[in-house]
Amino acid sequence: MKEREFWALLEEVFGRVYGRSLAKDQRLARLDSMTVLEALDAGMEPRVVWNLLCDQMEVPDSRRWGRDHNAPPLPAA
Question: The domain containing residue 22 runs over which residues?
Answer without folding.
Answer: 3-58
